[in-house]
Predict the 3D structure of the following.
Amino acid sequence: MNLDLITPNIGLVFWMTVVFLVLFFALKKFAWPSVLSILKEREEAIENALTAAEKAREEIKNLNADNEKLLREARIQSEEILRSADEMRKQTIGKAQNEAQKEYERIIENARLAVENEKKAAIAELQNEVAKLSIDIAEKILREELKNKQNYNALIEKSIKEVNLHHS
């Protein structure tokens, strides 16, 4: 086996150090600034992306808050509309009930007046019938009484005396 590669020689170490230093200074002078500027740009791009993401998250949070506010307002408006509709329904029902009650009272009053008028008409008709019956009975009684001539003359004299008494 060849040990030359494993054991370092002083010349090899010297030349490796020289090449390393030359390469190091060349990289430092030419490549390192561009690598640093690329890293700086990349860092700024990441920072800008993070800032934009934070702004986007804030905007989303604001939009969510606005959406929640709009939803609350919409709920309030819908509740108001429902309350208003319920109130209008109650008013309409109340008005209809009042009108129905008034109509009921008017119909009852008309019926009561009609019954009263019918009652008065029936009483008047009954009075007329009673009067006719009384006259018919009185007429029959008088005819029976007046069949006798003596009773006839006595009745006429009595009537004349009563008329004279009232005029005196």
Notes: The chain has a mean pLDDT of 86.
